[in-house]
Design goal:
- By secondary structure, this protein is α/β, with parallel strands linked by helices.
- It is built from 21 helices and 12 strands.
- The termini are far apart.
- The relative contact order is 0.09.
- The model has no long low-confidence stretch (mean pLDDT about 95).
Length: about 425
């Protein structure tokens, strides 16, 4: 592809992402599958430019007054890539699949911007932090002087973390298998069963993954599964199993000893878990499709589980560094729907816990509305539960000093180099 054709592809993809209800990575993958003729270097350039622009959404919207994808492309090349007006004219020449030539208005804007200082100091804080304006005031109060650091860390590229499947390999053995696959990894700083690749690579076809020796899973997610502290012989329920990442981690922690039940309202996601179970060598999981609050399964398992993990649907704000486009799709109404749903799910799941058992509430969110506020509200209406101090649990289960202060586990890219996760462990007294 010519340089101009590459830029045209980026503009086309940005338009598709804006119009699609799918995640940006799904749109990019579909686009590339339909264009097998695009070479690997061109694919990499187009994909990386798209994601870089998504990570600069606030700046690009500010500079272009929320203009078109073409406007943002021009602003990106001029302001972020420091491309000269002469070079821009060569890219936008309308030949060989290049974008149409720049019009006088666009050239005037480019020449004006090229004479302006490029410092961020005069921009609003939320723009500099690449953070949604409607969430800014609340999160600035919540994070205080750490707001810029925390928000900007959510906009960085995330590493590829792996969880060692201890049913099949030790950490050292997994490192050897990865090395034979041509991959270099190092132990994660917090999870004793985590590895972090030193370079981003597609590892789906490697022996390590195909053989079930490792699973792709952020270190923070691994820690949630470990904090659940499930053991063989303890009835454990993964109440919102979804794709099954934490379910598989629980199965390994339980040494494939049951009973371990995985349920979800999304039947298709549960069905997709089957090949992952086979690959991981897991046999102790029973799956159930929850049909609603009247499902007889809920009554059948009422007050019977030692551990109930509730990884609720949420904003996904803790994973914004992996899905930068989703940051700008979240609305106040959507957040309200999430928090309402979380309260309902939490109440349902709590009925499954037996006296002396634990309810583990988790989100992949950094927003207090989905985290601390949710727990405070639940404890006010469920007096039979109380919080267990996370520091004590961490020391007993994982060892060392907990990276989070207070009653809850709170992880963020800035403080722990993980995705943003929240976890509260509640014990049922009677």
């Amino acid at each position: 592809m010519t340089p101009g054709a590459r830029i045209s592809a980026v503009i086309e993809l940005l338009d598709k992402i804006d119009r699609s209800y799918s995640q940006a990575e799904e749109v990019v993958a579909s686009y590339m599958r339909g264009r097998r003729y695009i070479g690997s270097k061109d694919r990499r350039f187009v994909s990386e430019t798209v994601y870089s622009m998504l990570r600069h959404t606030a700046h690009l919207n500010w500079w272009t007054r929320a203009g078109s994808s073409r406007d943002k492309m021009i602003a990106y090349l001029a302001r972020i890539e420091s491309m000269t007006p002469h070079d821009l004219r060569q890219i936008f020449d309308g030949r060989n699949y290049s974008p149409p030539p720049l019009n006088p208005t666009e050239m005037g804007t480019i020449l004006t911007k090229s004479r302006e200082p490029t410092t961020d100091s005069d921009l609003p804080t939320w723009v500099r932090a690449e953070f949604p304006e409607w969430l800014y005031a609340g999160m600035a109060s919540y994070w205080g002087e750490d707001f810029i650091t925390e928000a900007q860390a959510l906009n960085m590229r995330a590493p590829v973390d792996l969880r060692v499947n201890t049913l099949k390999a030790s950490v050292n053995r997994a490192l050897e298998i990865l090395k034979n696959d041509g991959l270099v990894a190092e132990p994660t700083p917090l999870s004793p069963i985590g590895l972090r690749l030193t370079d981003r690579r597609n590892i789906q076809m490697t022996t390590a993954v195909k053989g079930g020796f490792v699973e792709i899973q952020d270190e923070g997610s691994q820690l949630i599964s470990l904090i659940a502290d499930s053991k063989a012989g303890q009835k454990t329920i993964d109440f919102c199993a979804g794709g099954g990442g934490k379910t598989l981690a629980l199965a390994a922690a339980m040494r494939d000893g049951g009973p371990l039940l995985a349920c979800d309202t999304d039947k298709s996601r549960l069905e997709k878990l089957a090949p992952r179970l086979k690959r991981a060598g897991v046999s102790n999981i029973r799956r159930h499709h929850l049909t609603g609050p009247g499902d007889s399964w809920l009554q059948e398992h009422r007050a019977s589980a030692e551990r109930v993990l509730v990884d609720v649907p949420c904003s996904g704000s803790g994973a914004w560094r992996r899905a930068p486009a989703s940051k700008w799709r979240l609305t106040a109404d959507a957040l309200q729907r999430y928090t309402t749903m979380q309260a309902v799910i939490l109440d349902q799941a709590s009925l499954l816990v037996k006296p002396g058992g634990r309810l583990i509430y988790a989100t992949c969110s950094v927003l207090p509305q989905e985290n601390e506020d949710q727990i405070h509200a639940f404890l006010s209406r469920a007096e039979m539960f109380h919080r267990l101090p996370i520091g004590t649990l961490w020391e007993k289960i994982i060892g060392g000093t907990c990276p989070s202060q207070g009653d809850h586990l709170s992880l963020t890219p800035a403080r722990t180099q993980t995705d943003g996760f929240f976890c509260a462990v509640l014990e049922k007294l009677w």
